[in-house]
Design brief:
7-stranded mixed sheet; 10 helices; alpha/beta; Metallo-beta-lactamase, Chain A; about 20% helix; 2 domains; binds zinc ion; about 25% strand
């Protein structure tokens, strides 16, 4: 695989400051000395969102892309030897965030805690995830702002949603991951109203890397929020030539004005940050649009065993001539799973 490597010492300034004025760095917000390493993988899941964090032997999945990304999630975890997910954060129950989590759950043996802004939702893909979680004996936990947990030596703290609104995107779980002097802020699909509420709390929103809200839409990442975050890097998860026009031109110029280096999954593929808590490096897949060719097989040739049609509730063999449109498609890794989800076999391809 061709790779482009950028390696930047983002924290030199911080280290100088630390020497000069120790008292500015309270023990509360900084995790102090860390001895291992944190990897943050922003997966190229097209017009969707997914990040896998690996820290000191522990793992956290933040969103899982669309249902059609299930195979990619499955392969990615397998290729990285992740048989246990210590934590899953489903930022909000939209398909492009929770749909592909099923692929991850089809691979792992164990799941720790699963966070979501709601315990129940009418969304098909959310329910599918929740019912698969029952096999692991896990139910969804709804965190409060300020709740925190450890991922290895990293600290994860929830910063939003501050106030629940009548809009699923605004209710996205927002969390910050601190590892030594380096931090990452994940915003799901939160937009301006949610950003304003977070600003009002006076919490420390600053982060070295910002996962830009809502795939780079115009309605997210307002100047005020951006100034509070003050990121060195801004990661945008979107699909090449997507119909939404993401990322928005105005947003790109806001990010440039603030001096953030912009990384986009539509151009760079998977984007992987690695840090020891002081030095941060980033590695990206080179531009390779031909690599994005999801059909019946995943990136690694991992077969979808059964293809379900959400509206007819039939499941098919992947080579059936009567496959549903992408919008109505779900993938199953076993017959058991398809039947368990209430699907019946297609009379044409007779899957068994
Ligand atoms: Zn989204
Ligand atoms: Zn959304």
């Amino acid at each position: 695989m061709n790779k482009r490597i950028l390696s930047i010492l983002v924290t030199l300034l911080c280290l100088f400051s630390l020497c000069a004025c120790d008292e500015l760095f309270g023990a509360e917000s900084q995790s102090g000395t860390v001895s291992g390493r944190l990897e943050v993988h922003f997966l190229d899941v097209g017009q969707a969102d997914s990040a896998l964090l690996l820290c000191d032997g522990e793992s956290l999945l933040i969103d899982g892309g669309n249902s059609e990304d299930s195979s990619l999630l499955y392969s990615y975890l397998r290729n990285h030897g992740v048989k246990r997910l210590d934590c899953i954060i489903a930022t909000h129950p939209h398909e492009d965030h929770v749909g592909g989590i099923i692929g991850a759950l089809s691979y792992v043996n164990e799941v720790g805690t699963v966070y979501s802004p709601v315990a129940e939702d009418g969304n098909y893909f959310f329910n599918r995830m929740a019912s698969k979680l029952k096999d692991f004996g896990v139910s969804v936990t709804v965190p409060s702002v300020g709740d925190r947990f450890r991922l290895g030596e990293a600290e994860v703290v929830f910063l939003g949603p501050v106030e629940l609104k009548d809009d699923v995107n605004q209710n996205s779980l927002v969390c910050k991951v601190n590892y030594g002097e380096v931090s990452f802020l994940f915003t799901g699909d939160a937009e301006r109203p949610a950003e304003k509420k977070m600003l009002e709390t006076g919490e420390d929103l600053s982060a070295t890397v910002l996962k830009v809200g809502h795939h780079g839409s115009a309605s997210s990442t307002c100047y005020e929020f951006l100034r509070a975050v003050n990121p060195s890097y801004a990661v945008i998860s979107c699909e090449r030539n997507n119909s939404y026009g993401h990322p928005d031109d105005g947003l790109l110029s806001r990010l440039k004005d603030e001096g953030a280096e912009i990384l986009r999954t539509d151009r760079s593929g998977h984007i992987v940050f690695t840090t020891d808590g002081a030095v941060l490096s980033v590695e990206t897949e080179k531009e390779a649009s031909s690599a994005v060719s999801a059909d019946e097989t995943g990136e690694d040739g991992e077969p979808y065993m059964y293809v379900g049609n959400i509206s007819s509730k039939k499941y098919h063999r992947p080579d059936c001539s009567g496959l549903p449109s992408e919008k109505n498609t779900v993938y199953f890794y076993s017959l058991e799973e398809a039947i368990g989800a209430g699907f019946t076999p297609c009379g044409l391809c007779k899957p068994e």
